[in-house]
Specification:
This protein has 155 residues and is of the alpha/beta class. Helix content is 39%, strand content 14%. The protein is built from 6 helices and 5 strands, in the order βαβαβααβαβα. A 5-stranded parallel sheet has the order 1-2-3-4-5. The chain is globular, with a radius of gyration of 17 Å.
Length: 155
């Protein structure tokens, strides 16, 4: 690739609704990308056009749980069970899961208990420039928050 990375290092995020206007062409393009080794991520799962038929038909590798579900999962049993079901659905389909919008240690703990291995959100970091990410990745030792130690406070 021209960017100097392998296609296996590249992930392409898309919403299901971006594929709906022409499903046939989308299937061909996604199939070609996957054969090249590009990882395909369905973004904002559970909102908009979400269809179990499309989830089964498109060759996604990763399902990203929309932040609206993550933010409500501590509001009661039903929102929590929805997140649990999405994680289990992805697992059954052989997909990884990324939880979006993790902002509290409680959300992080619950997701870990449900064996959600990947997450993103303000709990880990506010948006960073490319330069700041490069510096962060070069830090020695643990750079992610440990919710077992304490709640994070942002200035």
């Amino acid at each position: 690739m021209q960017a100097g990375i392998s296609s296996r290092q590249l992930g392409l995020e898309m919403t299901e609704s971006s594929l709906i206007p022409n499903v046939r062409i989308a299937m061909e393009v996604l199939g070609s990308l996957r054969r090249l080794g590009v990882s395909l991520l369905m973004d904002d799962f559970g909102t908009g056009y979400s269809s179990l038929n499309n989830l089964h038909s498109f060759p996604f590798d990763v399902l990203k749980i929309d932040r609206s579900f993550v933010s409500r999962m501590t509001d009661g049993d039903q929102p929590l069970q929805i997140v649990r079901t999405i994680i289990e659905l992805a697992r059954v389909m052989g997909m990884d899961v990324v939880a979006e919008g993790i902002e509290t240690c409680q959300q992080y703990r619950l997701l870990r208990e449900m064996r959600c291995r990947y997450g993103q959100g303000y709990l880990f970091s506010r948006p960073l420039t490319a330069e700041a990410v490069t510096k962060l990745l070069r830090l020695p030792g643990r750079v992610l928050p440990d919710p077992e130690i304490s709640e994070l406070v942002y200035a």
